[in-house]
Amino acid sequence: MTLFNVYPLYDIEPVKAQGSYLWDKNGQQYLDLYGGHAVISIGHTHPYYVRKLTQQLKNIGFYSNSVKIPSQDELADKLGKLSGLKDYFLFLVNSGAEANENALKLASFYNGRKKIIAFSKGFHGRTSAAVAVTDNPSIKAPINFADHVQILPFNDVEAVKKAVDNETCAVIVEGIQGVGGINVATDEFMRAIRKACDKTGAIFIHDSVQCGYGRSGKFFSFQHSGVKPDIITTAKGMGNGFPIGGVLIAPKFEAKHGMLGTTFGGNHLACTAANAVLDIIKKEKLIQNAANIGDYFFENLKGLAGIKELRGQGLMIGIEFEKPVGPIRNAMLFEHKIFTGVAGTHTMRLLPSLAMTIKEADIFLDALKKVLAQ
Ligand SMILES: Cc1ncc(COP(=O)(O)O)c(C=O)c1O
């Protein structure tokens, strides 16, 4: 058997990682400003995280959701306190797509409706309901195209006011679009969604899979706009690489046995990883660090020749170049040994660990200046 070849790969094989660094099998060191798609939140192989997971693995690694798993309650309590959403419920899953799939299903169970509003350049995952609300026909199979989905222009307040009506089940939006190119939702747009949902009984779903968990400099990016969604989905940074996702559910929803379910969601190891991540985020004040280092990046990138636009919040940064980004990223990786991400043809995506230091930011900035001057 061989692998189903769906991923274009770099000829690099990391065998070790620590903090913001990776090492390949030849001992070559790389600075990581991508975190494997925004997943590495507290830094690679944090000693506390490794210790907690090792201990848990020795005790019990898995049992299903038919028994008591106290680390799930611990996680709900910690997440409620740290995010400021103490009165929300938590449903645990394994990935971002699964979180959105359950969020959409829950919204539809709640109000009995099926029309969903989503936005241009939005990305919500590759499972059926999630991909149906994703604005990218190239990743939809014929069974994924759905009549009940309407895609509106992102940040268009008037379009929201017009489209959300008494038949709308839910509005799903990323507070900062990741795959779409680091586009930040305006406060006005977020408030318009909240208002339209309140008026019509539609459910406001905030996809925080990429922009959540402290990355924007607040726990959730919608907290910059002062709104409260009805359902919030999260994954990526939640387990620092251990697969886990979550659906945060407002108090107005009522759970029924059998309504939602999963085999692996909320297992012992996943909860241990997620609890360790929250402990470190709190102890090391990583949300504040993300805000500070993010500001440092913006101050130092502003005005650099070759940059057309800077977008983002905290450590979710999009650098749109005047020229195609491909050769710039290749030079950063192969000449300067720095991993970065991409969106579209001209935008570099930075999604480093929330523990990134000024010194590491400077290494990136010096390298980028050299590449742009070439
Ligand atoms: C905003 C957003 N939602 C959902 C997903 C899907 O997450 P996963 O790949 O864990 O299914 C992603 C992944 O990139 C994402 O960026």
TrEMBL record:
InterPro entries: Aminotrans_3, Class-III_PLP-dep_AT, PyrdxlP-dep_Trfase, PyrdxlP-dep_Trfase_major, PyrdxlP-dep_Trfase_small. It holds the Pfam family Aminotran_3. Its EC number is 2.6.1.-. SUPFAM superfamilies: PLP-dependent transferases. Transmembrane segments: none annotated. Keywords: Aminotransferase, Pyridoxal phosphate, Transferase. The keyword Hydrolase does not apply. The keyword Mitochondrion does not apply. Its cofactor is pyridoxal 5'-phosphate. One of its GO terms (molecular function) is transaminase activity. Belongs to the class-III pyridoxal-phosphate-dependent aminotransferase family. This is [LysW]-aminoadipate semialdehyde transaminase. The lineage of its organism: Bacteria, Pseudomonadati, Bacteroidota, Cytophagia, Cytophagales. The gene is lysJ.
